Amino acid sequence: LLVYHKMNLILLIFCYGVYTIGYVLTQKEESRYGDNVPIFYSLRSVLDVFYTRPNAGRPDTQKILYAFENYCFSHFSKPLYKQRKPFIVVEGDHKTSIDIISRRLARRIGATLLQSVAKCLQPYKRVFPQGDPLRRAFYGLSMYAIAHKVKQVYNRYPVVTNGYWIEQSVFGIGNQFQTIEEIPPSGHPLYSWPEDLLKPDLIIYVTFPDNLHLTGTTRPPNAWKKRLEYIYRQILDPPVVILSTAPGFDNVTADIEDIVQERFD
After folding, report:
1. Are residues 165 and 78 located together in one domain of the fold?
2. What is the pLDDT of residues 217-244, one digit of tens each?
């Protein structure tokens, strides 16, 4: 069964246009930044985690790979229109806020809303614990499943998703580099978009000020948020717009709608 899945997924990789491998640091860069920043730069690098022993023989990984192959990629309709609609990603440092804003934005612009975990993989999102490399690989698979779904939809409707590749990558970079001074500068290959993954037209990064939290926190104010926001500011392609929820969710959503209309109408 495992061999069957692997052969089919190899075929899927080539059909999907995956010809790249994960970014490898040069010797000079490796000595400065290390070689263990947890970022995936290709579908093949994601699948390698699932096929590494002992992961390959686990029943849960086989179920996930089966779902990815048979449910996430089971249908693909031919585009009905030559011109497509925008693909917009909403990310941020407060999950509840992002969920609210992305839903409101999708309603306002008539977009299809996709969650950060693809629907075809939703039953498995709690299989792997925090810190497990398979959990990161699972979310990596989900990014490619989302990209496939976007391609099915955005020839007719705009698409909004509340989390995508940069969200996963930024948290990996943020965990690796503990101070702003250590973070690689803009233009560094760490920020390179995977060549085999659909690139969004616009990324909105929404910050949630600490003084708006309703519950207390033991974390020093903005200790990690400033670092994450700084990383987002280093990303040049695709473009990132940074907004704050301080004016309120309705105002932020209206601001995003204005940006979308200005850029894509």
Report:
1. yes
2. 444 556 678 889 999 999 999 999 999 9
Do 159 and 139 have their domain in common? yes
User: Rounded to whole angstroms, how far apart are CA atoms 20 and 177?
Assistant: 26
Question: Are 55 and 83 part of one and the same domain?
Answer: yes
Amino acid at 69: E
Instruction: Using alpha carbons, list the distances in angstroms from residue 87 to 115, 120, 217, 251.
Output: 13, 20, 35, 21
Alpha carbon 31 to chain centroid, angstroms = 27
Q: How many domains does the chain have?
A: 2
Same domain? 71 vs 191:
yes
Note whether 73 and 124 are same-domain residues.
Answer: yes
Interval 196-202 mean pLDDT: 96
Q: Which domain holds residue 62?
A: 36-264
Same domain, 179 and 130: yes
Q: Which residues contact 7 (CB under 8 A, 6 or more apart)?
A: none
Instruction: Please answer whether residues 128 and 138 qualify as being in contact, where contact means their C-beta atoms are separated by less than 8 angstroms.
Output: yes
Q: What percent of the chain has pLDDT above 70?
A: 78
Separation CA 47–CA 62 (nearest Å): 11
pLDDT above 80 for 113: yes
Q: Is 89 helix (H, G, I), strand (E, B) or coil?
A: strand
Tokens of 125: 């999102």
Question: What's the mean pLDDT in 150-170?
Answer: 92
Question: What's the pTM value of the predicted model, to 2 decimals?
Answer: 0.82
DSSP 3-state of 203: strand
CATH number at residue 88: 3.40.50.300
Mean pLDDT of 58-75: 90
